[in-house]
Amino acid sequence: MKRILAASLLSLVIAAPHANAADKRVELPLQELLDSPQAKQAGIDGSVRFYLAGQPHPAVASKMGEDVSNKKTNGVGKSDEESCRWVALSVLKAFQESAKARGANAVIDVVSYYKKNEFRSATSYECYAGNIMSGVALKGTYAKVK
Prior knowledge:
The chain is of the alpha+beta class and 146 residues long. It contains 4 helices and 7 strands, in the order αβααββαββββ.
């Protein structure tokens, strides 16, 4: 009986952090993030523009493939919004670097793609925040726009 009880308690201790790792959905405005001083500090330099799905963008001269960027960050000691903004900047920085390497000047049709579930909004991205980690996944198409 003691072994069963000990095994049960151990299972709860091990499972508890994973159950709360990314349990709260947070929706935040992308343009506000791009215009923030933190974006400049993170290296988002404006050479690559980001357009959410449904958001108008300049005419596309050419498309250069689709990609997904999925990042996580430590959420301990940070508000959900703070950790979500931080990890979203990491995702955008990865897209920016990859776009430059391909010769693209934009990432268009950007959608949230957390756990391969699409969330489309012309104004916002989604993040999942928990007690320990926060995560953002975005999917978009590299493009040369006029």
